[in-house]
């Protein structure tokens, strides 16, 4: 018998992230196809994850040129690379210890990167650039989020800390919270109102939370994942007031801030709204805002670059944050990606035309996909989709006939899981069911990514099959 | 030492979590707003997760902070008795001028910007082929895609092959390999898995003193019980089974010992454990039913005559099925040390042996919360475990660079031991491996008195004074758990280039003589 039979209950409580029944079946089908098994399709159409480069979208040239030059500085002597690439690479390397990407970096990271992030925030929000001591760079935003949760959450003992989390919500943060022994208390976004966050519901959730845990923070995702809602300024103000009044730490996941598509919608950061609200909010409400190089135009998920900006955090606590973050410095390639995120080529730079063209291409593709989603889905009975204003996914609602519900029950699975499995088996389309993100009882959803240039044609194919699927 | 668990502490002090809310305790951590209404912060030292408060990470602690301040002052033109700050405290080889391996950087550059594959004369063919193979194994043929959370299959396969070759054919299942964000991520993950229970059943983890502060920091953060076992200074810092037995027996009275951590070659002591010693440790772990954690990141850094690196896995398997089929082991490796020195990429792996299937699935779940480890680091690990072979275009250059780096380290290890041992009041054990020397310094009574008056440990006071006077930043031994009156330990890396190291060592010598005289 194993020494490790006793596992920390917090670890046990984590739901598996990547090995869901659908993901496993998709993997199996890939294997079967490789071995020549005949199917009604040639390949698995993976539109499940928000992984742009995994889906075949090319990285931005500028990022990769800078990265290559930093990795192998001999390239700086050749005339293969544009001058602004070389300048940026030289600048970054000059601030690395020993002039090499191979060294550890201090908190908060390569100094130039920290400065660039600070200046980026100032350009985005107006006002003074934040102190680099309030910015922590980490291997991805989720890593930073877990570190902040670690500061907040009491995971043992009779009363555990709780965090209010949206329903629906991507799984990683919630499981991260569970792994620390924290409690997630859901608040339901309102589908009928475009997945809006409603204050009444937040209040209800908080009252419930007080009975089961010691609520300490509120987690908001803006723009949303999976729903593609972009929060209005008024809504953000309401949330900030709520946080002050109810004494909650605000954790704001803004990794999709560069992904806004609807014409009359704009992303505005929590920090900006907070600053504009003035005292007592602006100097009291504690806020952690997260961003990442994994999403948006960069899509450099594999490089693991993210950061958190802390606002109004107690300076004594920041000292401990330093200790926690210093154990897990961000990998240097990820820091380079962040440097481009924060300080991309500008008009007049040699790399600007190409950079602009590549980002425009992505923007056009995604906007086209969003249009297609609404055109196609709005014409199909039994499927409806709230306006996708931003983010990386479509999250339509599917009405399942009683026969399907019955069949799913017999098979011991959630109806939307059953639906997605059928879709996978018949068309090769790999999407994920709403039950993985949480949804109102009795409703069913599916999620698929917009970050895919095969989407344009395949959305039509998928949805054609969706209709057929309905005749279980 | 942590003599009882965090939960016992909380019970003792009658703190219930709900009462920790600052506002209810009327604590002074209040922020006054303009109209004079007090608004206490949600997150203060009192409301913070208590286990975080126990965390001290000495490698980046107060002395390093002071070193950074001094660097800033120097750059602002403030005059000091030195012209540069030398951070001889952290095992960062490239920061100290060690050159990266050309082949590795070429392949990584090609992987990052595959257009370079089309250039004719800039890169050798084998570098290009490797880049193509690695890219093929990545989602969307890009380093920027997420990888499976356990790591890229192709890389795990190569890691498994490396381990088999290294261990003379002992089989390695790629399914037991996890690619991690540096070795420290793997170590922390296994500890997260292990630590549970309340009160007397709280998990205890045995760590060597002197130790690398990552372990004590991780244990504190997890609220685990740290069980110290002392390495034998008189026998070149070897492990001593009697001492292990003493430590575990004592620990059983107040916690549930479940794991034993070993660093081999050692950090900061540099000892390379003998094969016999490793066998004894394995027998001990089997008898006491402990999970073995073998941190082997310095496995290529072995310098001393008669010393050889033996992997715990190899020894385990050679001890026959009684042990090889029962003892649970996790071994850790990384791209940060050895001859690579690629700390910034955060590449690493762990191999888990004899882990229960149910436990393994919990581990897999835990790892998936991290999404995946940095893909450039995974690519780099692939190159480390599968370097250029004889006959390949890059082989000669690779071997030359690797040999030069490792022999320079060996030379520096010897030089360090030699010079430090010429100083009265300093004695230094041979640096058998790894990247540090761990000399013992005699601290005069007067200095100890002044230290305590300042509220500092004597060896911290010694190091702070050395920093202010010479710009040399060392880590005091108290950060590593060793405590003794009149004697302290300091950790100094052997990494600076040899001429700089010689100057450094002589400055340390001069400082020590001055310090001793000043406080006599």
Automatic annotation (TrEMBL), chain A:
Entry keyword annotation includes Transferase: yes
Stored CDD domains: AAT_like
Biological source species: Neogobius melanostomus
Family membership: Belongs to the class-I pyridoxal-phosphate-dependent aminotransferase family. Alanine aminotransferase subfamily.
Name this polypeptide is given: alanine transaminase
Catalyses which reaction(s): L-alanine + 2-oxoglutarate = pyruvate + L-glutamate
Signal peptide bounds: none
Pathway field: Amino-acid degradation; L-alanine degradation via transaminase pathway; pyruvate from L-alanine: step 1/1
Cofactor(s) for this UniProt protein: pyridoxal 5'-phosphate
Gene3D superfamilies found in the cross-reference section: 1.10.287.1970, Aspartate Aminotransferase, domain 1 (3.90.1150.10), Type I PLP-dependent aspartate aminotransferase-like (Major domain) (3.40.640.10)
Keyword match Transferase: yes
From TrEMBL, chain B:
GO terms, molecular function: L-alanine:2-oxoglutarate aminotransferase activity; pyridoxal phosphate binding
Record bears the keyword Metal-binding: no
One example of a Gene Ontology biological process annotation: L-alanine catabolic process
Source organism, top-level taxon: Eukaryota
Pfam families named in the record: Aminotran_1_2 (PF00155)
SUPFAM superfamilies cross-referenced by the UniProt entry: PLP-dependent transferases
Keywords on record: Aminotransferase, Pyridoxal phosphate, Transferase
Pathways involved: Amino-acid degradation; L-alanine degradation via transaminase pathway; pyruvate from L-alanine: step 1/1
Catalysed reactions listed for this entry: L-alanine + 2-oxoglutarate = pyruvate + L-glutamate
Major enzyme class: transferase
EC numbers on record: 2.6.1.2
Record-level GO cellular component terms: cytoplasm
Keyword RNA-binding among record annotations: no
Gene3D superfamilies, alphabetized: 1.10.287.1970, Aspartate Aminotransferase, domain 1, Type I PLP-dependent aspartate aminotransferase-like (Major domain)
Family per similarity comment: Belongs to the class-I pyridoxal-phosphate-dependent aminotransferase family. Alanine aminotransferase subfamily.
Subunit structure: Homodimer.
Purpose: Catalyzes the reversible transamination between alanine and 2-oxoglutarate to form pyruvate and glutamate.
Name by which UniProt lists this protein: alanine transaminase
Organism: Neogobius melanostomus (round goby)
